Amino acid sequence: MNSLATSVFSIAIPVDGDEDSASGGGVVAIDNKIEQAMDLVKSHLMYAVREEVEVLKEQIKELVERNSLLERENALLKSLSNSDQLSQLPAQQANLGSTSQQPAVIAQPPQPTQPPQQPNVSSA
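Structure tokens predicted for TSC22 domain family protein 2:
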């Protein structure tokens, strides 16, 4: 047990006979060892929490970038669609909400004989 405490907490806990257990100094020594162990646990927990915060910050950064990209893509698609297609969106969204258990089938507009020219869009 003593070697386990020494290896984990880097503190030595005296075994019976190592200290005078009848004196008040033994109690103080044990209290100090407990306080040291608690401080060590606290520092390890704080380190783990800091690492997790860094990971979460990175995930938030990636999600914000993805959201921005999707917003730009949405704006581009809106600019390329005609007003008839945009006016059909609220009706389609209402149908999706009322038939949540059935898969939604969105009518595709008729395809033109020549595809429209796509503008050059570079992702930033």
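The radius of gyration is 33 Å.
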